[in-house]
Specification:
heterodimer; A: alpha+beta; DNA polymerase, domain 1; 2 domains; 5 strands; 37% helix; 17% strand; B: Uridine Diphospho-n-acetylenolpyruvylglucosamine Reductase, domain 3; Enolase-like, domain 1; 3 domains; 12 helices; 34% helix; globular
């Protein structure tokens, strides 16, 4: 069964016919061509496929296309702010928060979601927020450092805005 | 990873329409809420629904509401993350917020719903023991009308509830609780996060802080029987008594006798039974001390 769905993807309106059983992950990668979002486990355990759905981080491997009419979706391709990388992207690069890179899109989306809610997270807060994102390379230490550094950048730019 | 097979997909705008769809289309249909159990069952366990009825377009069955009579309603489609972060729930029933926070990851909890956690009816469902400890009621809507049932009576076995095919759990109601109510939920699993409960215990009771007496005690055990169960003999041991470490230990030992665990890949029945004893004691004493401030404090604290 196919259905017509219209949704916002990285700020742009998208309208298409999609099979209702198509997973959001596959819709993004195979039909729309946004391959930044990765599939790890396919069962909601690893977080590699994390995207923002209506402002909240979710596993795109568990969302059916049939549910998407009217949705607002942001993927890793929509994370940059204009031409600039998002601070979490900059600090993951700078701090070595990415090694093989497979978990990185999910890590970045989840880190952004955390910093949107909590601009000054403790290490415990970061570990808690990223507990659904598995990384087999880094041992997490540099990822946590990168999130802390991104938080500092974001807090700094907020302070500048107020001046 | 396996992909889901095609199916018909409906998004009804009312509960009546949803129930009617199930009646008309017959067997093989499934209701969809957050999908964090259903979609995994379709991908991993070969579940092939003929059709799916998505409930997320039905208005009025989501969100947390304080009622004039002092009770609190949790719409069935309220997400775990909404419950975990709700100021109302955190203030009144910190241990219920905690139990919701024990489910999967934040990504999962942004999708998983409290109603889905009940209807999937796994014996290890994290929010069930806390809700039963709070004497919650399930509101159910079906083709034949509405009914209410105590949540304690809602579960029938692993994956089975009292719902008939066309019935929908719409709301969970927590009755007004006395101001001295304290509670605690402890989940045991080898991983701190992203794991199922091997054993879980929720307790709730009225605690007289001066006299240190407890009343209205409810102790609910998860993952140690085909459904969440109350440890009623352990409860009555505590009724009206002064809560001491030795009494809590005695209640724990009785609760361990009341558990009906199985041995499986996660742990042996004997181990689970011993853990019920230790965790019940700990839950009772922790509840009397009051809620932990953070998950780290909670993890590290011993009464």
């Amino acid at each position: 069964m196919k259905t017509k769905i219209q949704f916002t993807l990285n700020g742009k309106s998208v309208s298409r016919e999609a099979p209702t059983h198509r997973l959001l992950l596959d819709l993004l990668r195979d039909e729309i061509g946004l391959t930044g979002t990765k599939e790890g486990c396919g069962t909601g355990d690893c977080g590699a496929c994390t995207v923002m759905l209506n402002g909240k981080p979710v596993n795109s491997c568990l969302v059916l296309s049939g549910e998407l009419d009217g949705a607002d979706i942001v993927t890793i391709e929509g994370l940059k702010i204009g031409p600039e990388l998002h601070p979490v992207q900059k600090t993951f690069l700078q701090d070595g928060g990415a090694q093989c890179g497979y978990c990185t899109p999910g890590m970045l989306m989840m880190s952004k979601a955390l910093l949107d809610e909590n601009p000054n997270p403790t290490e415990g807060d970061i570990r808690y927020a990223l507990s659904g994102n598995l990384c087999r390379c880094t041992g997490y230490a540099k990822i946590i450092q990168a999130v802390q550094d991104a938080a500092a950048i974001l807090r700094g730019s907020k302070a500048e805005d107020r001046r | 990873m396996k992909r889901t097979e095609p199916f018909d997909f409906y998004q009804p705008a009312t509960l009546q329409e949803a129930s009617r769809l199930l009646k008309e289309k017959g067997p093989g249909g499934r209701f969809l809420a957050g999908g964090t159990d259903l979609v995994i069952a379709m991908k991993e366990k070969g579940l092939l629904p003929n059709y799916i009825v998505d409930l997320k377009r039905v208005p009025g069955i989501s969100g947390i509401r304080e009622n004039p009579d002092g009770s609190i309603s949790l719409g069935a489609l309220t997400t775990m993350y909404e419950i975990e972060t709700s100021p109302t729930i955190k203030k009144k029933f910190q241990f219920l917020a905690q139990s919701a926070a024990e489910v999967g990851s934040i990504q999962i909890r942004n999708r998983a719903t409290i109603g889905g956690n009940m209807c999937n009816a796994t014996p290890s469902a994290d929010t069930a023991p806390a809700l039963i400890a709070l004497n919650a009621t399930a509101k159910i809507s079906g083709a034949a009308g509405e009914r209410s049932i105590s949540l304690e009576e809602f579960f029938r076995g692993p994956g089975q509830s009292v719902l008939s095919a066309d019935e929908i759990l719409t709301e969970i109601v927590i009755p007004k609780t006395p101001s001295g109510l304290v509670g605690e939920y402890i989940k045991f699993s080898p991983r701190e996060m992203m794991d199922l409960a091997y054993v879980s215990v929720a307790v709730a009771f009225n605690f007289e802080t001066q006299k240190k007496t407890c009343s209205g005690v409810r102790i609910v055990l998860g993952a140690v029987a085909p459904t969440p169960i109350r440890a009623k003999r352990a409860e009555s041991t505590l009724e009206g008594q002064i809560l001491s470490e030795s009494l809590a230990e005695k209640a724990g030992n009785i609760a361990a006798e009341e558990a009906k665990p199985i041995s499986d890949v996660r742990s042996s029945a004997d181990y689970r039974r011993a853990m019920v004893g230790a965790m019940t004691k700990r839950a009772l004493l922790n509840a009397a001390v009051g809620p932990a401030k953070s998950w780290v404090e909670r993890r590290d604290r011993r009464y």
